[in-house]
Amino acid sequence: MPPRTTPTQRQKRLGAEVRKLRTGVGMSAEYAAALLGVDRGKISNFESGTRNIGADRLRTLATHCDCTDGRYVDALVELTAWSRDNWWDEYRGRVSPGLQDIAELEWDASRIQTIQTVHIPGLLQTEDYARSVFSSGLPPLSRLEIELRVAHRTSRQQVLTREQPVDYVGYVHEAALRMRFGGRETTRAQLAALVAASEQEHITVRIVPVERGSFPGAGHALLYAEGAVPQLDTAQLDSAHGPEFMCTEPQLEKYRAHLAWMDEACLTPTASRDFIHDVMRDL
User: Fold this and answer.
1) Phi/psi of residue 51, each to 5°?
2) What digits encode the pLDDT tens for the residues 240-278?
């Protein structure tokens, strides 16, 4: 089978971890190739995510790299598995690869935390609200593109409604509550939906009031997806050019610190619901 031309973020991450295992003990690519019984080029393919290393070869490599963290190795082996029944496959070629990577990242996460300062978190958005968010982009999207993105975002919400939903924490700045995407009625309906979602056991919504003052992160929206082990956590930031994925330990430590600040600074879940109701009355 020829190498992939467009590996997913999951495949790239597995490749990066394979490279980290190898280089962490100073193993050359040539030695790794001989160890795994492949040619030198395939090691490069494994590490770029364009080929799947496979579970057996991964365990062999981990053993010879003196990796004794069994949970970490098991989690890497899980990344080698490929499912043919992903709901997002129906959007392949219809929405950007970055949006597909976000959907897969959320689906595989053991826990999700988000920070939003301008709009309501995507997994908690109503269709009308999401439609307004996508309609505000520049350059303007076509109606077809907007509807595809709305449908894709709505489908992503399955991660919160499936048989075993992911634990979710949304830190939302007061400014996001008061931004009237879609107008007064759409915003009111969105806030009501946000309150309803926050009453579910696996969903927590925490509000940062404007009176709290400054906060870290310069207002960037953050999606933090916890992996099966902390080494496989991923931070995702939005940018004008598409999603950016961060997975080095210094990057992860920075965003863990941001989330810890939010946890200390935000209102409690109950106070947050009361606060949202107050904003709804102001509309």
Assistant:
1) -135, 150
2) 788 999 999 999 999 999 999 999 999 999 999 999 999
The answer to whether the CB of 129 falls within 8 A of the CB of 190 is: yes
Beta-carbon contacts of residue 253 (< 8 Å; ≥ 6 apart): none
Report the alpha-carbon distance of residue 104 to residue 83 in Å, rounded.
Answer: 11
One-letter amino acid of 229: V
Question: pLDDT for 31-50, tens place per residue?
Answer: 999 999 999 999 999 999 99
d(CA 154, CA 132): 14
Environment class of 238 (CB within 10 Å of its CB; exposed 0-12, middle 13-18, buried 19+): middle
